[in-house]
Amino acid sequence: SQQGEEDPQALSIQEGENATMNCSYKTSINNLQWYRQNSGRGLVHLILIRSNEREKHSGRLRVTLDTSKKSSSLLITASRAADTASYFCATVSSSGNTPLVFGKGTRLSVIA
Amino acid sequence: KAGVTQTPRYLIKTRGQQVTLSCSPISGHRSVSWYQQTPGQGLQFLFEYFSETQRNKGNFPGRFSGRQFSNSRSEMNVSTLELGDSALYLCASSPGSGDTDTQYFGPGTRLTVL
Question: How far is B19 from chain A (nearest CA, A)?
C-alpha cells in the first residue's frame, strides 16, 4: 500500500515559475527521498532528507520536512521545460531495514 | 560506472504464460529491489534481494518470485500471467549498507499481457 501521498496530482506552470509539490505520509520515518521520472523511464534520485533535518537544498531544489505534520515539500525554483516529469516522494520507515514506499506522484508540466 | 540495466526493455505475453525479467545492478551494489508500476496502483514494492537472500517482500501473490546470483544480478519471474500484470517493472540497486542508501533505477521492462 502507498504511504506517501503527493499533492497536487498534476501541476502546470510557465517556464521560470516556481513549482511546489507536497507529500504526506503516515508512519514514523528514518528519511524521505524525492525522485523524478521522465515519461515511461526509470526513476532518478533527487534528494534525501533525514528525519532530524528540517530543510535541505540542492541546486534549484529545496526540500522541507515537518515530522510533526508528517509532511514534506519539494520546491523547484526557476523551472525549465526539462523539469517536466513526474515527481515522487518515498519514505524509509524508522523501524529499519525496510523498503522505500512511494507515493503516487505529482505530474509536473513546464510550458515554454 | 555503468548504470542499472534491465532486459528485455519490452515484452508481450499472453495470459497464462510465464516471464523472466533480468536486472544487472551497478558494479559493487549488493542490493537489488524490484517494483511494479501501473497507472492505477502507482509504484509498488515487490521484493529486495541482498547478497543472494530475499531481505524484504511486498504484498504480491506467490506467482511473483525472484532470485539473486552471486554476482548480484537478479531475475524476477511471473508465472501464470494475468491481464493485470501488465506494467512497467523497475529494478533498483543500492550498496545495501543502510537506510539512507540512494536507489539507482534501471529504465524498466514494459510488460504487456494480452
Answer: 20
